[in-house]
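STRUCTURE:
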């Protein structure tokens, strides 16, 4: 069940809140190839299945930044807002890629509101800690501290 924050005051009070795990999402080689085209990062470990299969990795792997870029998609089922003006990305703090995502892997986000504090225009700045899990693996593919600001209506 998606957590709904009813306004900025409720979001402000959410520090420490554990968010449920999101739905699983499959990463395909087509998506990896499309990301390589958009970013112009065609390193063979991402786009050459034959060469990657004969390497110590055994297959191609998704770009770490592809995994990170899926965070909005993966977190969309974790929480949402009602009665706010807007919510914006403010940036990232710590980001790590402890394990690979391979074509065919299913990934999902698990989140926690790490902290909140006052922001300009009556907004609330928050750090949401995400772990992007790979189905069947004990090691996450990505750990990220994402910063966002939620503003009240009219701000």
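SEQUENCE:
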């Amino acid at each position: 069940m998606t957590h709904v924050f009813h306004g900025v005051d409720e979001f402000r009070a959410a520090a420490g809140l554990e968010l449920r795990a999101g739905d699983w999402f499959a990463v395909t080689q087509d998506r990896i190839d499309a990301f390589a085209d958009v970013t112009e990062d065609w390193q063979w470990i991402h786009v050459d299945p034959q060469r990657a299969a004969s390497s110590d990795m055994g297959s191609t792997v998704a770009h770490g930044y592809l995994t990170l870029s899926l965070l909005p998609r993966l977190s969309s089922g974790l929480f949402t807002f009602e009665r706010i003006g807007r919510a914006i990305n403010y940036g990232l703090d710590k980001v790590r890629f402890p394990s690979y995502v391979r074509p065919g892997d299913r990934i999902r986000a698990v989140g926690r509101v790490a902290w909140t504090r006052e922001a300009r225009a009556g907004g609330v700045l928050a750090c949401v800690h995400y772990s992007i899990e790979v189905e069947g693996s004990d090691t996450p593919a990505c750990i990220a501290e994402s910063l966002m600001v939620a503003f009240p209506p009219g701000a």
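REMARK: The longest helix spans residues 29-39.
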